[in-house]
Each structure stands twice: as structure tokens, then as C-alpha cells.
Amino acid sequence: MDIVSLREQWKPFFDKIRQTKEFEEFTKDPWSQSFYNLCATINEVFPDFVFDSDSGETKFVIIPEDYDVVFKFPNVPAKHDYSIDYCLAEARNYRAAVEKHLDKYFAWCDKLFDVYTPNGYYPIYVMEKVNCDEQSINEELMDWFDNNYDEPDSKDEKEMIKYEDTLQEFSDGSSVAVDLWFESIFPDDYMRLIQFFATNFIDDIHSGNLGYRNGEIVIIDYCGYHALFDSKLPKDWYSKYGF
Ligand SMILES: Nc1ncnc2c1ncn2[C@@H]1O[C@H](COP(=O)(O)OP(=O)(O)O)[C@@H](O)[C@H]1O
Ligand SMILES: [Mg+2]
Question: Is 129 touching ligand 1 by the criterion CB < 6 Å?
Fold first, then answer.
């Protein structure tokens, strides 16, 4: 995807949005209610712009119906000096993945621009839109589990507990289950991929953080969470990749 044309394409849109009271309020204090209000305002300002919205622990996301990108807004106020911008971490990690030739496993993303608000500059990110059908992914995970694990003899208590724990991981679509699954679906690059996760503090790859691009699994939330929060990053962590 071409970030220069995306910037040109979306600048007039965000120029309008950034002038609204709701954007100012959202960027001062990004939380579910201020994001909800912002979405309502986008609907009013651009009635033909059809979109869904979603959010997790670290980001708010606008998913347009008629475009092949999504917009990600970090859960950090414009004026801040301590919180982590997890979208920035994601954009940085994408460039790191390109460097290691692992980018095909990640939805493309980049920083769109910083927009001016009375609270200071607020960064907006853009990501390739993929099909985040968590239910299908969970079904695939369960199929894989069923094909790869046999229920042990119920008399073998230790094996039974292990089996049930693993079954639970798969039912939850947890990062433990996804890791086992990745080893099987990405046999060529699995070792390099998990090494990449470790060196870039990427954790929390559960089924809700995956999507399909042309039927292939890609990761859509790869900023890391606890691992990034808990680590002391080298000084050039972001600048090394031009951020
Ligand atoms: N590239 C994408 N394409 C489609 N939907 C997305 C994309 N990125 C995120 N989403 C949706 O937005 C949700 C929140 O985004 P995510 O990056 O996981 O944020 P968080 O870090 O807060 O969990 C995802 O669970 C997914 O449903
Ligand atoms: Mg997520």
C-alpha cells in the first residue's frame, strides 16, 4: 500500500474531523464514550461514509465498508509523556518485519499523520483491512485441535488433565493455542517468527488478533502488550525504523 497516496486521499477527511468538538474531546481523553461520540460525529459529518468501529485494550479502530484500510487511534491522549502509543509500536514492528522478510504474516500498517488539535498533535494510523472473523478462526483452531489431539484414556489422570488444559486453550483461542497452530500452518518460518516476536516484545497473539487476507491468516494486532509494557526499550527502538 502506498502511504503517500493514502495521506493525500484521507487528509481532507481528517481535516474536517479534527475540527469537531468530539475529536478534541476524544484526543484529550480517549475512552469508550468519547470514541462513541466521535463515531456519531463522523456519521453526521460524512453521512455516506459507512463504517464499523471496534476497540480493544490499546486502540480504537474505524473500519470503513468501502475501502481496503482501517484507521487506528491509540488509546493515549494528545498531551502525554508517559503512556505507550501501541499503534506506534505496531507501525514500528511492521517495518522490523519487512527487514526480516516476515511481513507477509502481518497486515500492512503505517502512521498516516499527526493531526493538529488544541490539545497537541494526535497520531492516526492506517492498516490494511482484513477479514477479522474471530468465529471462523476459532472454528479452525478447534478443528486443528480435534485432528491433532486424541482424548486419552480417562484412567490416565495426568494425561487427561493435560488434554483438558490444552482443549481449554483452544476453546479460548488463547495465545498458547495460536502458537501451537502457527507451528503447523507456518512450518517454514515458524522458528524465525517466534524469534521475531521475542526480540520485538510481541505477545498476546490470540485468535482475536488475527484475520484473513485472501484466506490466509495474518496478524492484525502486533504491538505487544505486557512484554512491551514491562521492558526497558533501547534508545533507538523507534528511531531505528524512522519513527
Ligand atoms: N486490519 C484490520 N482489519 C479489520 N479489522 C481490524 C483490523 N485491525 C483491527 N481490527 C478490529 O479492531 C479490533 C481492535 O484492534 P486491535 O489492533 O486488536 O486493538 P487492541 O490492541 O486494542 O486489541 C480487532 O479485534 C479487530 O476486530
Ligand atoms: Mg487486539
Answer: yes
> 177-204, pLDDT tens digit by residue?
999 999 999 999 999 999 999 999 999 9
For residue 221, which atom of ligand 1 is closest to its CA? 17
- Nearest one of 98, 95, 60, 97 to 77, comparing CA atoms: 60
- Beta-sheet pairing, 51-55 with 120-128: unpaired
The number of angstroms, rounded, from the C-alpha of 216 to the middle of its chain's C-alpha atoms is 16
66-95 pLDDT, tens per residue? Answer: 999 999 999 999 987 788 999 999 999 999
Q: What is the DSSP letter of 119?
A: T
| Atom of ligand 1 lying closest to residue 128 CA | 1
Specify the residue with its C-alpha closest to ligand 1, atom 3: 129
For ligand 1, whether the C-beta of 85 sits within 6 Å is: no
Residue 141 near ligand 1, beta carbon < 6 Å: no
Q: Say if residues 143 and 137 touch (Cβ distance below 8 Å).
A: no
Do 130 and 211 form a contact (C-beta atoms < 8 A)?
A: yes
Does residue 12 sit in helix, strand or coil?
helix
CA–CA gap between residue 173 and residue 207 (Å, rounded): 5
> How far, in Å, from the CA of 55 to the mean position of ligand 2?
8
From the CA of 96, how far away is ligand 2's center (Å)? 19
Question: Is the Cβ atom of 107 under 6 angstroms away from ligand 1?
Answer: yes
Contact 209, 220 (CB under 8 A): yes
pTM, full prediction = 0.96
Q: Is the dihedral of CA 119, 94, 56, 195 positive or negative?
A: negative
